[in-house]
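Example 223, ligand zinc ion.
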Amino acid sequence: MSIIRKAEAACSKCGAKNETTIYRSINTADNPELKQKVRDGSLFLWRCSSCGQTNLARYETLYHDPEKKVMIWLLPEGLEVSEAQMQSISLHAKAIGDYTLRRTDDAGSLMEKVLIFDAGLDDIVIEMCKFVTRMELISKAGDKDRAEKISRAAFHFYSVTGEDESAVLTLTYPDPDAGKITGVNIGWNVYEDCMGILSRNPGIRPGDGFQKIDAAWLESRIR
Ligand SMILES: [Zn+2]
């Protein structure tokens, strides 16, 4: 079941109060249209009725895809979790066995996780692919300044195209020279190599519960 509420939010530009929709919990089996809105990022955007400004909503939500057996808890940074919420979420986690449980602190990361899991990929392997790709780009950077900028850039999974061995993964990152988000393609062999590293080092995998899997997490596991 999805839990959908109305709430009042102030526009970031003009401050006008707007009535907005808040998705406390999203069940993609009951509401497949909400999955699409998470995938394209529109679920968290709302338009101010006074000035037309597009605002990004910030609230806690639990994304549940029973088909993919995935549960992702979006808890924006700085938001407090009540004890009741924490309890209900822990109960969820205990009640379901073979689920992948993830925690993110921004809507963009939730969107990325959904794209990864919908494509049938492993988000830990994707983080490893991002790490390898970052290292590769740094080694080809040419100058120190560019290398430094790439080392701090956020990489995201964008898409996978093609089948089996000829599949190509597209990651995005803010290219310091181009000054905009740029795609970088990697072959399926990179994904397979990372999968191999992970299976030979099962200790990298996280424990139970809602885990935050991102670049910082991976670096803490491989150092
Ligand atoms: Zn406004």
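Summary: Strands lie at 3-10, 17-27, 45-47, 54-56, 61-65, 70-74, 100-104, 156-161, 168-175, 180-187.
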